[in-house]
Design brief:
Strand order of the largest sheet: 1-9-8-5-4-2-3
Order of helices and strands: HHEHEHEHEHEEEEEHHHHEEHHHEH
Number of helices: 14
Number of strands: 12
Strand content: 5-15%
Helix content: 25-40%
Radius of gyration: 22 Å
Shape: globular
Structural class: alpha/beta
């Protein structure tokens, strides 16, 4: 073990975005163009992203959350209907359904992964509740893709839609295609910590023309024309129809320009993250108090989920995490299961850890450690050394 005391000044952030001169120039180009909101940059970003993930349609939006609302609304999620999703996700996955007046049915994750368990999904679909389900919403945690073969088979069997929460999964790719472009709709995130970023933003993709048309309209107040069309078409800009009470979920050109450069660098970022993961995996295989994270087909490694074997330690996850922070290592926890939050506990009777044992166990054992393209070799070594040092301190 290296002597970490000699590097006390070293701080390793949880994440730092890889932003260079190309991104700066792209944003400045838009600022000088006289057109800042949704226009030709956003349109180009959509076309380039659709081509990358091999989807027929892509819609740039101002967040994954807004994209999920659009996707669910287009797929018939409304009062009297429900979605099935996992409690092991960020709360917005489920909150979007509630915003539309629908219910949420939760299925536990698999015992050996962070992904929703198709067996538990079918238990709900076969139950009396199943008749209310409009969509299954799998979440590809940390870039590791859910069992989409089984999920798509269930969707066909029970006649429901599949909306992929692909916030973590670009550019994960399996034998079925890119994660996010497998189901009826997929929604990506470009939040600052994601594999590519626009600061804030997201993208919705689909191969269904009717769904694309509905989401395009609802993205901008329910208008039958886009903003760019209204100001570039020979048709009078003030002439439009409102087909439904829509939202304001568009992505401005300022952010789209940043996203286009990041998209062009996505494969570079992917290679760098995977090289860092190799170093982590090689080091952690030697430590008996660590359970290695799952690495399924097409994993894009958005996060490195360090899972502790608490039977080998005389401390809990929180103690381990706090000691990492004290050593200057930025960490997070993905995720606090939704059943821990007061709103959801009050909403659904029996919505607690007892009914979702795998989600609860994973939560109690997991820490997200630094993983980003521009991590230095020294930073990776320091994180590994700190983890080994804390593990030895508390080893049972």
């Amino acid at each position: 073990m290296a002597d970490t005391t000699k590097r006390e000044a070293l701080k390793v952030p949880f994440f730092t975005a890889s932003i260079g001169k190309e991104e700066e120039e792209a944003v400045l180009r838009v600022m000088r163009s006289g057109w800042l909101t949704t226009g030709k940059e956003a349109l180009a970003f959509e076309q380039e992203f659709a081509a990358k993930v091999q989807a027929s349609y892509a819609l740039a939006v101002n967040s994954n959350t807004s994209g999920m609302v659009l996707a669910m609304e287009a797929c018939g999620v409304k009062p009297g209907k429900a979605v099935i999703t996992t409690p092991y996700t960020f709360v917005s996955t489920a909150a979007c359904a509630r915003l539309l007046g629908a219910d949420v049915y939760f299925a536990d994750i698999e015992q050996d992964s962070y992904s929703i368990d198709p067996v538990k999904v079918e238990e709900i679909l076969k139950s009396p509740q199943g008749k209310h389900v409009a969509a299954i919403v799998p979440v590809h945690i940390a870039g590791n893709v859910c069992n989409m073969d089984a999920i798509m088979a269930l969707a066909r069997k029970y006649g429901v839609k599949v909306i992929e929460d692909a916030a973590h999964s670009f550019p994960s790719r399996t034998h079925l295609g890119y994660a996010g472009a497998i189901g009826d709709v997929g929604v990506f995130s470009f939040y600052v910590t994601k594999t590519i970023t626009t600061g804030e933003g997201g993208m919705v993709v689909t191969n269904d023309e009717a769904l694309a048309k509905r989401m395009t309209s609802m993205r901008m107040h329910g208008m039958d024309r886009t903003t760019w069309d209204r100001y570039t078409s020979p048709k009078a800009s003030w002439e439009y129809d409102i087909i439904a009470p829509g939202y304001k979920y568009n992505l401005p050109d300022l952010l789209a320009a940043l996203g286009r450069v990041q998209l062009a660098r996505a494969d570079e970022f992917d290679r760098k993250r995977k090289a860092h993961v190799e170093r982590y995996m090689e080091a952690f295989r030697q430590l008996d108090f660590i359970k290695l994270p799952p690495d399924g087909e097409g994993n894009s490694w958005h996060l490195f989920l360090l899972r502790l074997d608490l039977t080998k330690l005389r401390c809990d996850r929180n103690t381990f995490a706090k000691e990492l922070q004290q050593k200057g290592v930025g960490i997070s926890v993905h995720f606090i299961p939704i059943f821990h939050f007061s709103y959801w506990k009050q909403l659904y009777e029996g919505f607690d850890a007892e009914h979702f044992p795998h989600a609860e166990q994973h939560y109690n054992e997991t820490i997200s450690i630094p993983l980003f393209p521009d991590m230095s070799d020294e930073a990776i070594s320091y994180v590994v050394d700190c983890i080994q040092q804390i593990g030895e301190k508390y080893h049972a």
